[in-house]
Write a structure and sequence with these properties.
Two copies of one chain form a homodimer. By secondary structure, chain A is α/β, with parallel strands linked by helices. Chain A has helices at 24-29, 43-59, 78-90, 105-117, 131-137, 175-192, 194-208, 212-232, 239-242, 248-257, 265-282, 288-300, 312-320, 349-357, and strands at residues 2-5, 12-16, 36-41, 63-68, 98-103, 123-128, 142-147, 150-157, 162-165, 332-334, 342-344. Chain A has a seven-stranded mixed β-sheet, sandwiched between helices. The first copy, chain A, starts with a strand and ends with a helix.
C-alpha cells in the first residue's frame, strides 16, 4: 500500500509493504538526493535489520555510515544529538545528504531532530520498526529530544522525505511492545473513523496472531488516517491535529509521574483513553456505550484500562505542564461518539480528577 | 517605513522607524499572541535598551522575563541554549508565548534557535541593534548556534513574527561595528540592485555621519531588498538566496582561519567581496570597472579590501567545509555587473587561490 501525504513542496509517500526495507536504497535514489547517508539506529535493531538496509543503500550507490545510539528514550538527549552532529560533520554530510532513522519512536524523534537542525535541515527518512512508530510517530514531522524536566520539550517540525513501513519487522517484537503499539491504532479509530475502529475489532484475532495480511491492512489503514490529519494541519495549528492527542493528555501525565518506567507508552495511552472516555461521559458529552466499546476493544487487544495505585495529585500537576497548554489552560480531546472528536477547553479540574480516580481498581 | 514580507501563513512585517523600540509591546499585542514573553539580550545591550523594551511590553500587558546571555558569538553555544530552555520552562512559557531577541546577529541567531526548538516552535520577534542584524541577520528566519568545529552548523529555519528596526539604536555603536554593518548594505546593492548601490554611494557621507534620515532610508532599502529575496526563496532552495552569500564564501573562510578574532564579520565580508569580485574578473565574467567600483565604495565606507598575511592554504581548506557545498562542490556567487549575480558551480581551485592571493598587499 502506498499512502501519499500531500503537503505541497514537502509532500512524501508512506510505503507500507512486506519486505519494503530491502528497497530503501532504490526509493531514496529516486528522490534525487545526494550520495551520502547516515543510518541512525541502536545495537539491537542493527543486528536485526541493519544489514538489509545497509546493503540496499550500497547497491543503490550511497556511501553510508552507521551511527549507533542508546536504546529507547535514552537516545533522546542533547548529548546523543551532539554525538550525531559530530559524526555527520566528520563523515562530510551536507544538506543534500540523508539521515535514515531505523528503529522505534525514540530513534525517529532523535534522528529527525538531528536532521532538522544539522545545517538547518537535511533529508530525513524514517524506517520505523515498532507498530507505534509505524502508525504514529514516524509520520507527520514531529521531532524532539527530552529536557530533564519535560519530555519532547526541545524539537522541531521537519517532514520526512519518505517513510518505509515494513510490517514484517513487527513480527519479531516482544509481545508487550507489540500490543502497546495497538493503542495508537485504536485511538485512530475512535477519534477519526468508526468503520476503521470496527475493522480493527473484526481483525483483532488475526492482528494478535501477527498475520502479515492483517498487519499490512490495519497498519496501512492507520497510516492513511494519520496522513489525512497531517495534510490538513501539518504544524498543529488547528484543533484537528489535537485529535491525535486523544488519550495522551492523561497518558503522558501517567508516564511522567511514574518516571516513564511503569507503563510502556502504549499502555499509558490505553489508560489515558479509558480515563478520557470516562471524562467525556462525566461531562455529558458521550454515552455509556461509547465508553464501553472503547474499553472492550483495548481489553481484547491485551491493553490495560484500569490500574492500581495511581498518584492522582501528581497526574493532575503533570497535566498542567502539557505542551498543548495555552496561557495555562489545557485542552482535552474527547470523543462524543466513535469516529468523532471534540476539543474541550474548560474542563473543570474536579472532573479530571474524578476521571483519573476512575482508573484505580 | 513598513516592509511586508509575504510568506503565506508565515508572513510578517519589518518596521523600520526611528523610535520603534518603544512600540514593540503594542505591535506584539496586535498579533494576538499569548501574554508571556522572554527578552533574550546581553548585559551591555540591556543597559542601553532593555528598559525601553521592558516598559513597552509591560504597558501592553505582557508578563515578561529577561534572559541574559554572553556577549557576541559566545552566546551561540549549546550550553547557552540549554540555559534558555530551562528559563523558558521555569517561567511557564508555552507555544503561544514569544521570545524577543534584543541585540546583534549572534543574539538573534541564538534566540531564534531557542524559539524554533522550544516545544517545536514558539513566536519569535527580532529587535536588532546592529546594522548587520538590521539589514541582514534578523530577516529571513535563519537561526543557528555554533558547533566547536563549524559556525552555524546547528540551526533551523524559523521565521520571526515581527522585526522591529530602530535606526536610532545604531547611532551608539562603536565606529568599527558601525562600519562593519555597511558591508552587507554594499553587498545587497552589488548583487540585487544597481540603483540602490548608487544611492548608497551618494549617501555615503550622511551614512558615515549617522544622520537619522539617511540611516532610515538606506537601512530600510536594504531590508526591502533582503525581503524580496526571502519571499521568493524562504528556505534557500534555489540559487536566488545564494545571492545573499556574495562575499561570504571567502569571507567565512577568512574568519574561520583566524579564529573569528582578527576581523569583524563585516570586515571579512568586505575582503570576501573584494576577492570574489576579482574572481569574477579572473574567470572572464566581469570587467575591471565592475571590480573597481565595488572596491571604491567599500573603501569610502572605511572597509578593508586588502590584507596582510593571509593563510591562503587554510582559506582554501575552509572553503570546502562551506555549508553551501553540494556533494563536495562549493558554488560561488559572482557579480557579472552591478545589480546582477550568477551562481557558478565549477570554479577551478587555482582561480580561487589566485583570487585569495590577490587580497594580500
Amino acid at each position: 500500500m502506498i499512502v501519499p501525504v500531500n503537503l505541497g513542496p514537502e509532500s512524501y509517500t508512506i510505503v507500507v509493504e512486506v519486505g519494503a526495507l530491502a528497497g530503501v536504497g532504490q526509493r531514496l535514489r529516486a528522490l534525487g538526493v545526494g550520495r551520502r547517508a547516515a543510518l541512525v539506529t541502536d545495537a539491537a535493531i542493527r543486528r536485526l535489520h541493519g544489514a538489509v538496509v545497509a546493503r540496499s543503500l550500497e547497491e543503490a550507490g550511497f556511501a553510508s555510515t552507521v551511527i549507533e545510539v542508546p536504546e529507547g528514550e535514552a537516545a533522546k538527549t542533547l548529548v546523543v544529538a551532539e554525538h550525531c552532529w559530530d559524526r555527520l560533520l566528520t563523515a562530510g554530510l551536507d544538506r543534500t545528504s540523508t539521515i535514515l532513522g531505523l528503529g522505534g519512536g525514540a530513534i525517529g524523534d532523535l534522528a529527525g531532530f538531528v536532521a532538522a537542525t544539522y545545517m538547518r535541515g537535511m533529508n530525513f527518512v524514517t524506517l520505523p520498526t515498532t507498530i507505534l512508530a509505524q502508525v504514529d510517530a514516524s509520520i507527520g514531522g514531529k521531532t524532539a529530544i527530552d529536557h530533564p524536566k519535560a519530555k519532547n520539550l526541545i524539537g522541531a517540525f521537519h517532514q520526512p522525505r519518505l517513510v518505509i513501513v515494513d510490517p514484517e519487522v513487527v513480527r519479531t517484537l516482544p509481545e508487550r511492545d507489540f500490543r502497546s503499539g495497538l493503542a495508537e491504532i485504536v485511538k485512530h479509530g475512535i477519534v477519526l473513523e468508526q468503520s476503521y475502529f470496527d475493522e480493527v475489532a473484526r481483525d483483532a484475532p488475526a492482528l494478535l496472531g501477527r498475520q502479515l495480511d492483517a498487519l499490512e491492512r490495519i497498519i496501512g489503514g492507520s497510516c492513511r488516517l494519520k496522513a489525512s490529519v497531517i495534510e490538513r494541519d501539518p504544524e498543529e495549528k488547528s484543533d484537528l491535529r489535537f485529535a491525535l492527542n486523544y488519550g495522551h493528555t492523561i497518558g503522558h501525565a501517567l508516564e511522567a509521574t511514574t518516571g516513564y518506567a511503569r507503563w510502556t507508552h502504549g499502555e499509558a495511552v490505553s489508560l489515558g483513553i479509558a480515563a478520557e472516555a470516562r471524562l467525556a461521559r462525566r461531562i455529558g458529552l458521550a454515552d455509556e456505550a461509547t465508553v464501553t466499546s472503547q474499553e472492550a476493544l483495548l481489553t481484547r487487544l491485551g491493553l490495560p484500562v484500569r490500574a492500581q495505585q495511581v498518584d492522582v495529585d501528581g497526574v493532575l500537576t503533570a497535566i498542567t505542564h502539557d505542551k498543548k497548554a495555552r496561557d495555562g489552560r489545557v485542552p482535552f480531546v474527547l470523543a462524543p461518539r466513535l469516529g468523532q472528536f471534540r476539543v474541550v477547553y474548560d474542563v473543570a479540574p474536579t472532573e479530571v480528577r474524578a476521571a483519573v480516580q476512575d482508573l484505580v481498581v
